């Protein structure tokens, strides 16, 4: 029997208490619609929506918001032509879009981190999973070697690194998305005796400035920022694999966007 | 007569109403201490503090917080060795440190934006100053040309750009620091008919994703992220020039840090 949108969402959220104030929602879309195909993506960008239509999918599962806002505020977009063209495309397409953010981060382990660790083949190094970070104990590598490995495995063209590239790393913390803030990251260095933290994104005047000072004091601590999308897209790719095995009768595709920034 | 710390701070804040909940403060330091020399900086990093001591300055004027936090939260740093070494250096040095953030952003025009515009020699192109952005009308340039000009004038090794580098720009918005958020930036494109926004830093899933969609729709809109420090350091450099002319008897130095990230 062909599953409905509601059936997919029930499967995705099964066993997880509704997160307080969750941003996760099906909009647009009806729970009763039968699924023709699914596209998962970091962000339901204009490109991703066009790809979903071309692939004959009628459900997009997106990690980040469709309209450039975590809380889906739109009042400042009502007269914006980019917004209007995208909203019209969605409305005319009959696509359902499910924002799948908070529930996925509450998987055990976090579904986004798990996808990243699998893409890196680093599950074998996990010492512990904390609610917002995974702690790894790895064979010693220099930061420069870690950076090259990350770029190769994740197929990303560049990374931002703070601290010395020659720092030797065995104890590594990984945090995805916007978890790179000072309050989240800095205490981990001491609590977990970390040499390196790999994060998605965070304020530049917090953790990076701490690492700058640590390095200037001669301490072996370093930070790699993957980029927000680069840290979370592998989790949405892994989600497509999971859905494929849970619903083998359905076509499920992960659609990857180009990096949002280029370095000039 | 040698001015005191209090005299400098009175000059810096003259005519500006105390900003609500301001983070600006002299800590450590006494208003009555006589100034031997001043260092201005984007951030009072370990390197900047050492330079101030080497230069014989006893007052650092820093734009961002000393301990990796806008609100100066420190409870999570108490056992951190990087924090302790830096705090001990400051305590033993006799340095005063004045955080000068909110007042400077309330200058007319914003003192940080004014420094950036001067460094770019772009004051002549200003159409209007808004509270958090300046709007420029410039001779038409491609984004790639603007990027090269920014790198050369500001002596920065790289920029992050979204949208097409061949976009032609005449109407340009400039926002410094962490003003790159979607709610702040996106409405400016329509309200001010902008082709390009140059900002410091902001969440990657907001404005950059908007620009990605705009470019994919074939619209000529682009975004350049300078980096938080890169966008605000010129304002602190210009502040050193102002102080030098206001207090010609005092040695005043701007100390520039290396970029906090390198691209790998």
UniProtKB/TrEMBL annotation, chains A, B:
Protein name in the entry: GTP cyclohydrolase 1 type 2 homolog
Organism for this UniProt entry: Paenibacillus borealis
Keywords: Metal-binding
Entry-linked InterPro entries: DUF34/NIF3, DUF34/NIF3_sf
Entries under SUPFAM superfamilies matching the protein: NIF3 (NGG1p interacting factor 3)-like
Similarity annotation: Belongs to the GTP cyclohydrolase I type 2/NIF3 family.
């Amino acid at each position: 029997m062909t599953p409905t949108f509601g059936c997919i969402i029930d499967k995705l959220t099964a066993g997880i208490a509704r997160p307080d104030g969750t941003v996760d929602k099906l909009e647009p879309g009806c729970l009763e619609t039968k699924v023709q195909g699914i596209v998962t993506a970091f962000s339901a960008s204009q490109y991703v929506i066009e790809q979903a239509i071309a692939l004959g999918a009628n459900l997009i599962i997106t990690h980040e918001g469709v309209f450039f806002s975590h809380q889906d505020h739109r009042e400042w977009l009502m007269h914006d032509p980019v917004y209007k063209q995208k909203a019209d495309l969605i409305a005319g397409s009959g696509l359902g879009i499910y924002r799948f953010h908070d529930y996925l981060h509450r998987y055990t382990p976090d579904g986004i981190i798990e996808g990243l660790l699998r893409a890196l083949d680093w599950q074998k190094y996990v010492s512990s999973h904390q609610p917002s970070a995974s702690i790894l104990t790895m064979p010693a590598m220099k930061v420069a070697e870690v950076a090259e490995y990350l770029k190769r495995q994740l197929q990303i063209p560049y990374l931002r690194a703070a601290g010395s590239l020659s720092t030797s790393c065995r104890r590594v913390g990984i945090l995805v998305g916007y978890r790179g803030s000072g309050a989240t990251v800095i205490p981990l260095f001491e609590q977990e005796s970390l040499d390196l933290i790999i994060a998605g994104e965070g304020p530049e005047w917090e953790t990076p400035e701490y690492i700058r000072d640590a390095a200037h004091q001669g301490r072996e601590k370093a930070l790699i920022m993957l980029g927000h999308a680069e840290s979370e897209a592998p989790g949405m790719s892994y989600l497509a694999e999971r859905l494929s095995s849970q619903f083998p009768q359905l076509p499920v595709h992960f659609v990857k966007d180009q990096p949002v920034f280029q370095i000039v």
